[in-house]
Structure formats: structure tokens, C-alpha cells
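Shape matters. As here.
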Amino acid sequence: MNRTIFFLPAGRGSTMVWLMLLACAFVTGLPFSYAQQKDGAAQTETLFLSGKGNDDTVKWDFFCTAGRNSGKWTKIAVPSNWELQGFGKYDYGFKPDSLRGKEQGLYKKTFKVPAGWKGRKINLVFEGSMTDTEVKINGTSAGAVHQGSFYAFRYDISKLLIDGKSNLLEVTVSKHSANPSVNAAERKADFWLFGGIFRPVFLEALPLDHIERAALDAKSDGTLKGKVTIAGNADQLVVDLYSADGARLGGSFKTDVAGRSEVLFQNQYAAVKQWTSESPFLYTAVISLYNKGRLLHTVRHKIGFRSIVVKQRDGLYVNGAKIKFKGVNRHSFWPTSGRTTSKKISVADVLLMKDMNMNAVRMSHYPPDSHFLDVCDSLGLYVMDELAGWHGRYDTPTGKKLVPEMIAHDENHPSIIMWSNGNEGGHNLELDTLFVQQDLQHRPVIHPWMVFGGFDTQHYREYNYGIGNYDHGHNIIMPTEFLHGLYDGGHGAGLEDYWNAMWLNPLSAGGFLWDFADQGVVRTDQNGRIDTDGNHAADGIVGPFHEKEGSYYAIKEIWSPVYIEHRELSTDFDGSFNLENCFAFTNLKNCSFSWKLEKLVGIAGTSSKTAVLHADSGLAVAPDILPLAKGKLQLALPKNWNTYTVLYLKIKDPDGREIFTWSFPVKRPAEIARVLVTENGGSKVEITESSNRFEVSVKDLRISISRDSGRLVQVRNAKGVIPLSNGPVLQEGLNNFANFSFRKDAGNVVIASAFNRKSAYNTLQWTIYPSGWVKMEVVYFPGAYFTNFTGVNFSFPEKEVKGVTYLGNGPYRVWKNRMKGNLFGFWNKAYNDAATGEYPAVYPEFKGYHSNMYWLQVHTTGQPFTVVTDQEDMFFRLFTPKKSDDQYGNLQPTFPSGDISFMQAISGIGTKTQKPETTGPMGMKNIFYDYEKEPGRAKHLVLYFDFRGEAQTLTTTGRKEAGHD
């Protein structure tokens, strides 16, 4: 409805009313002159008794009966959850509540009704209250106790009000319900349990003859159907349709309603723009009620023209296009206010989802705030709206009250394209027919975790099982929860395997990740500590305050609606890329494509930074590629493109939103290593040996190497010791280096082990150059057919590390089954001991695996040291991240035993419900066939070390550049 809005707080008089009338006209998309010319008495006018969200609250009198700050009258912000306001007791759904049945909130609020409302019907509306809510006006009951937290309900209080005087509103809210089925559906759940009036409360004034309800169904062909419920006497209904710019489409549609309390209408509109998640075009339907030419009442609804069809054993179609959902589950939640949110939060949530290239969201596990659906309508997200029921369900009498409340409240939002009757066993099958009866649009109804309505909505199925259903099943496969995130596991880890299978199989309708944000509560009873109830609520892609974890960017790349086929920039690269258009409705000619070439320089030292030495950029002609088609993008690169370090390709959608930026290294590690590593330096390399060590010196550098193992014992220069030692140690390989000897070779000193096929088939060689650079070369065989990782480790005291600067992929760490989302370039990372999903958070995390290393400089409390490789696909690992409490032991984050490692294969990570290997091939252990102990089949690992401790400029161009010394 369109509402003329008044505010109760003192000091906001006629000026505020005038401004809100203007805002109302703007929101509805109608010109202000149209809003002005309407009879004010024909509008539904609204008076807020509370604020409208956590950023706009009003103080009410409050009395908490148990827990903190109980037993006394005081003040509380409304709307709010009282726990976050310092009252009662925090409860997570899994834990027994010691105050169950005792914790209530008693509210009081006085108000006056505007004089102009006399003679109208006045409703008292609650958008949401947890849980049983008893309401009195001036000491008299307003009606039956409402049971059910997440549903808007109203009382007709017209006869209970005192004209021209203050009225007293008294509300008693019980945190737990007297109805066992309500507790089973809402309270016994895997999420935080709160109490209180957590959504807005307002009065609405309607003419005695008015429109009670207008259910609309706008189809993609321009057909608009409506079912309008009328109270009082009227003889005519008029329907007008306006576009976002205020232009009216066609003429007014009129129909006779004399003597009828319900009327069905249908009209056809030409050349309407269809609503989709990619192009969320909205219109405003203005429905007016007349009697003998006099306007009685007008309501307005934002609508979108779109059609939803489920084709059994095929898929779900929107406007004739088959949709694959790139979706996420979302709770209504904010860490400082619980389930009380705001329009600002809704906008931020939807923008983050759109930025991750998602097109759908599931309302888990209850209907959301109105403003969230408004934002989904306007920004474009497909919505699955859900009746509450985690593992328990409402009984039939209760459900028969709540289903109509949910549908009447949400039905006209074009973003809602399906209903969910509960979650994971919280399905009351007797309520299914209600959805059909109540919803004019007859949107599909599903039962998450069940096979129902032609959908198999399996939760957390292993990759082989789930993908097997695609290959051998008959239902539409649409997991409403999959890849259950926990800390750094799940979400982006495993998604690439799942999505590749989902995309290619025609029975797949995509799926919904669990879940959007960590539900971390700022505990008012624990000095503001952010509490996720251990591992129960740390399931998000983003943190409680929307902190972005590594999976955020992996999802953004994997779910890009423009797929770029793998491309190597070889010497004959012609600037072309093969593309696949994964949009459902958008031609790629409406997107924008730009490229940038950069020559990079890293400025080393304690205040390391990076810079772009030179760049070239340009726009590309957007290719004409239809949805689901393939084609080619051509970049007009300069002839000297191969003198640069990296090529970036950025794609934006038709609205100018960045889909993703891809990076393609132009230079390979061997080319960079040739620039950085120098062998000649004019200093003589000396070596002495003792019974247990080789002692090598060049200029001020002293290096000690064990004669028995070949490991680094100590590194010292003129400034002191660099405490890198005890390496290389092969990980998941046999450290059988033996029979070391040294030789001098063209001014270099070489220390090498001897190869023995039976007992010493792994070999290690050190080369110390006159320049002071040190080369380490390991030829080795992985220790088994299946390995978690392969590579070498070194020891280094963690307390002495301040940070790193590196050339490679960053800035986030990676796992074997989460390689996407990073960019190639220079990155600076300060040391932190952050654990993903534990707070306060620091992102990106410092510890863990990092990919595609070219060059690494470690900054310490003493002096830095540098490591370079001339090999592709090298990982470096920084220490071992904290292992958080893993509920089922499925994450299995596996790391080498040393402190700093250089790896040629790394491990994956699991999810809350799956081990790494069950998330798909990328999560499985590494497989090596070359287990024959033959030198020609061994793996080869090369590193170059600079231990001179000098601040230096590390370029990728082959020369020192002025201004970067």
C-alpha cells in the first residue's frame, strides 16, 4: 500500500509530514502532483508508534520478568530484541533454556490518534514480535494472543480508542510460546533465540469503505490479474499502471464491484518490460475504489511482470528462460541488534549478494522484513520465502493462521518466485493446499530436504552422491542447502566442482549455499565480545559486520555470468579469449570490457610497498553473444604487450557493476627470476668443512649446512643472524638425502648429495654464487600415491615475523579446492594470527597457503630475507593457522610440520558436514603416478634465497628504475 506517514515523536510536525508525503510519492514512482491531487481521506495513513529499524527506534516503558535487569520498570528501544538491550538471557537454540516459561517483556506506550482519523477504521499492526504477544488498549484486550514470531498481524482497535486523549498500549511478549508447535518450529533450532518486539509497530487508518487486500499477478506477457477484497459499499474499481518514471501505461481499467466483497479483474498491457534478477523493472499498480464517482480508497503496489513455470523432469523457468540458482541462505540478523534490522542493512546484504554474482536468496528459516523484499524487488534477486519450521513444525490450526498472514503480507513482491513450507522436517503437509488457495500466482511450493513438487532439494549430499542424482535421477535437483560453511571451509571450497556439474546437467536448477553471514552476537553481558556460540553460528561467507572472507571472492569468480575459458598467454597470444555467456537474459554486447597491462615494481624494506611502473589500458568491443551461447572477445593490445608483467581483464554488467577482474601473468617465473637473481658479484666464495658442517662464506654472508642431512643450520651476515633453519625437510616424502660433498664450479660452491636408487633416491643440492644468492635444488619422489601435499619446510620463529611482500596471487590464502578469487600482482601482508570466523576478525588472514609464488620477501623484527623461484605453480605456506573447534571433524585443514614451506601441491579443506574429499575431485588428495624412484620421473623444486638483508628494489622489468631505489 501507499501510505501517508506520520511520526509520533514530538518535534516532528507538519514539515515532516510534508516531506514524507514527498518521499512517498518518490518511492511509488509517481509524480508528486499525482499524490497531491488525491483526496487525503482516501489514503491509508500510518502512524508509527515505534521506530522503523535498528537505526530508528523509539523508547517505550519496559519490564523484564527474568534474567538481566529484570524486576523493574525502565526503558527499551522499540523495535529491538531485549537481550541486545541488556535484558533477559541469551539463548542459542541447541541449549536448554533455564528461564523457559519465565522470561517475558512487558511494554507500555501512550499515544494520541490524529484528529483527522475520526470515523475511520484503525488497525494496530505488528510486523513481528517474539513470540506470544498479548495486546491491550486502555486496559481492554485487543484480541487473541498472537503466536508466531515472524509474521505481521493486526488488530482492529477502532472501538477501543479514546478520541482526543492519550491512549495506553500494553503489550506482554513471552519469549517462548505456550503453543508447543510454535516452539518446535521456531525455538528448537540452530540459531540464536531472542525475545521482544523486533519489527515496527504502527497504526493504520483506513476509510470505512476500503480495500482490505489486493493480490496481484503480473505475467511476462503483460497480463495483470488481481483479486481484491472489499470492505463496505462501493460500485467501481479502477486500476492504473505507472512506470518508474511516472508515465501511465494505457488508460484506466474499470470494473463494476457493486454488492461484492471480492472481485477478480484482468487487464492486458502492451510492451511491458519483464522483471528478472538481471533486469528488475518495476511498475506501480494503483487500485482505487469508488462509489457514485466519489473516491473512497486507493492502494498502491510495486509489481513486476514475470512468469514462473515448473516443467517436471526439466527445470524452473522464468519468462521462458531456464534458471540455475546461484543462491545463498540468509538470516535476518545484525550483531548489535539481533533479528532487528533496517532498510540500510537489507540494501547492504543484497548488494553483497549481487556483488558475488548471486541471483537468488532463500529466507532461512522464516519470512524476512518487508524492506528486504523491497530491495530484492528493486535490485533483482529471486527469493524463496519460507514458513518457519527448522526441524519442528507448526500444528495445523496454528499453520492455518500463519500461512495466510505470510502470503497476504508478501504476495505481491515479484522477487518471490517460490514458497517453502518449513525446513528439514518442519513441513506440515496439511498446509500445502493453503499455499495454492492463498497465492493468486500459484507459485511452486517446496519442502527443503525432501523430494516434493518435482524438486529434489537434498541437503549436504556428497559430491559423488549428488552429482549421481543429476546423471541418473529424474527430479529437478536443487539443494536448498549445500557446502555448509564453517570458518574457512565450505562455500568457495568445493564450489567449483559442484558448479561445473550443476551447470552442465539439464536437471540441475542450481542451489543455495549455507549461509550468508556469521551470526555473531555482540554480547552486552560480556563486554561486547562477539559470540557465535562456538562453531554453531560461524557459518557465513561474510562476518557479522560483513567482513569478507576468502570464499567471498572465490564465489564471485566461480559464479561469474561470463565464463572465460582457460587461456595461456603464450608467445603467439593474439589478444583473444573464448567466452561463454551464462546470463539467462542478457546479451554480452550490453556489458563492458576493459583491459590493463601493468609493469610492476616491488619496493622492499621495512615499509614495503608496490607500485605500477608503467601501464597501458583500453576498452574492448563487447561481443554480441546471446545468453547461453559462446563467442570470442578480442583485445586490441599494443605490440609490446609481452614486455609487461600482467594483463588484467575487467568485465562489468549493463548496470556498471563489476562482474569480476581476471589476471593473466605475462611474465613467467623463470623470466622474473633471471631479472632478480644475479650470480656474479665480484666476491669469492669460500668453504670449509668440519665433522658435521659445511661453512660457506661470501663477502659478509656466512651459511652453515649440515653434512649429514644437507639442511640449513644457520645464516648470518654482518647485521646478525637470520633465523631460517632446519630445511629443506621434505613433506610426505622420504628425507634420505645422503653422502654430501662439495665442489667448486666456475667460482660457485656446490654442495650436493649423491643419488642412490635404493637408499638415497631423493637429492639435494645447494649452490652459493659470488653475488651472495643461494640456490636450493631438490629432486624428489612424493612419499605415497596419495598425498596431502608435497614440498619442503623450514623452521622460523613466528614471533620474529612482521609481514611479507610477494609477487603472486593474492591477497587471500587458498586451498586445493578453493583456488579461485585472487589476482596476480604484488601484495603486502602484515602479520596476524587471525582465525577465520573468530572475532575480532582480521582479513585477509596471514597464515596458510598462498598460490603462484614468483618472489617472496619476509619482513622480520631483524632483517628481511628473500625467496625467488623459477618454477610455475609454486605455493608458499606461512605457519599453521589456529585450528578452530570443528563440530564434526570434517574441515581437516592439513598443513606441513615446519613453519615456512614451499609446496608443489597443497591440501583441501572440508565443510561443516563434509570431509574435503567428498566435496569433489579438487578436494581429494594429490595423486602422483611417478613413484618409480627413477630420476627422470622425479619432481623438481628450485628456490633462490637472498640472505644479504639489504633493502632493494625488485622489479619485473630487467633493470633498476629511477625513483624506485
Summary: The chain is about 10% helix and 35% strand.
